[in-house]
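In response to reviewer comment 3 from the previous cycle, which asked for concrete evidence that the modeling workflow produces usable outputs, we include below a single protein chain processed end to end. The sequence was submitted unchanged, and the resulting structure tokens are shown without manual editing.
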Amino acid sequence: MRGTVLKGVALVALVAILTTGCATMEANPKTTIGAVGGGTVGGLIAAAAGGSPAVIAASVVGGILVGGLVGNLLDERDKKMAAEAAQKALESAPTGKPVAWNNPDSGHAGTVTPVKTYQTASGKHCREYETNVTIDGKQEKAFGKACRQPDGSWQIDNS
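The workflow returned the following structure tokens.
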């Protein structure tokens, strides 16, 4: 099973690289490296902790969200809190209702807000979301889309 998880994490990392695009990599390599690294590390941490496939997928999603936004500026607790907020937002938050996280130790905070919930023509359930992260008084914002997989996990879908 661990090999399957590692292959899944590697696939997500590859998709993140491909969907980010070469121009973004040249313009801001730290964002791309942060997104790929965050997704990979998030998935590996969840797998090592014995997490279910849904927890592992949420960790990958959270890692990509956080890694792409602020890379090395967030500590491990920040990243964990952001990943948990992303999972809760995608799984159960009503559209338009932000799920907040706040690390009083670092002073960093953020929200993940589902902005649209829909079903594709093929029957896949998806959510578009907005993330906001505040570090040292500076706010970063990003948008994305995640779709529920047959196993119940959420996968970022940039199509």
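Residues 2-156 form one domain. We consider this sufficient to address the reviewer's concern, and the full set will be provided in the supplementary archive.
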